[in-house]
Amino acid sequence: MEYETPLFFRVMQYADRADRDVIDMVSGNPDWEPPAALREGLHEYADLEPDQFQYPPSEGLRELREEIAARRNVDVEQVVVTNGAGEANYLAMARALERDRGDEIVLTDPVYPYYPGKTTMLGGTQRFVAADEAGQLDPADVREVASERTAAIVVNSPNNPTGAVYPEETVRELVEIAEEYDALLISDEVYDHFDLSGRFASALGVDSDHRIVTNAFSKSMAITGFRVGYAIFPPELIENAKSRHMLVNVAGSRPSQYAVLRALRETEPEYYEESRELLAERVETFTDALEAAGADYTTPQGSFYVMARFDGYPGTLENVERLIDEAGVAGMPGEAFGDSRSEWLRFALVTPRVSAAADRLAAYFE
Question: 3-class DSSP state for residue 183?
Fold first, then answer.
């Protein structure tokens, strides 16, 4: 079995080799400060006893798991701390396929490309359901694709790349479809703190043994390098997930988990509100420039991505490289996210140079 290197890395490598200044709008690395308590936790950790520099419990520090469980209103034994949301999704998808209820993973189109990549890696079969122009998913369309072969339905809200936020009724219906076919709904909620619509609904709001929720602190605390995520499993599915986690990773980072726990306990809601306000300002700045350039674009309800379509400029890797060379802006090709957005480009608004990037795009496409 062969795996392709994700296009993210190819684009970033190309931008790094460019002979000009390039504004990075490829990766979802927040550019703002992490919580102050997180830095304080790291400083504090450096002076702990030597035993605190050894392996933590494989499933995560007990206190961190208790804090997550209390906030998400679940039993602590349902929580496993993972190497970011990436591993959390891997564990959830693996658990769905090893139940032997089916070999198909239902995904959205457009899709975050790591989901189909993981499906292939795990030996599953991809099935796609198209989202509408705003990125919303119609449960009726999912029901048409679902069958006895469905192992899991994987969704992401707030969504990457469209910025869509699924309302509560959509989430509830998706859980019902999973229950009907004895499948699992895997709900990746890593952008939950970046809901700009006020409509975000966690799948944990639906009482069911047919849903797994994944998340991480990477985006919400601006610490993508710390690799602290988590998955919440139904009680009957958690033990095998913990075993796979142990075999793949042994354990996660103890200092990262310690610092995240400190930040969870001490960070006020204002920290997250300020991040959302900053993002909302950037969305307005960027979409105003796209409007001036005559582009079609999405206005995200959540997450921090904008998709744009420029007339006669499809979202291919070749055009992304041209944009780097000729405009000095690096985005992602829409073709990386599936067939339905092949004419589009995706831009991440996690750079202080959003205004400059907007000006460069407007000038390039005028």
Answer: coil
Q: Tell whether 229 and 352 lie within a shared domain.
A: no
Residue-number span of the structural domain to which 133 is assigned: 50-266
Q: Is 314 left (phi over 0), alpha (psi -120 to 50) or beta?
A: beta
128: left (phi over 0), alpha (psi -120 to 50) or beta: beta
**Closest listed residue to residue 10, CA positions, set 323, 350, 321, 345:** 321
Q: What is the CA radius of gyration of the chain?
A: 20
- What is the DSSP code (8-state) at residue 230? E
Query: pLDDT confidence of 2, banded at 50, 70, 90?
Result: low
Between CA 212 and CA 13, with CA 111 as vertex, the angle to 5 degrees is 115
pLDDT tens profile 108-153? 999 999 999 999 999 999 999 999 999 999 999 999 999 999 999 9
Give 178's contacts (C-beta < 8 A, 6+ positions apart).
150, 152, 153, 184, 185, 208, 210, 211
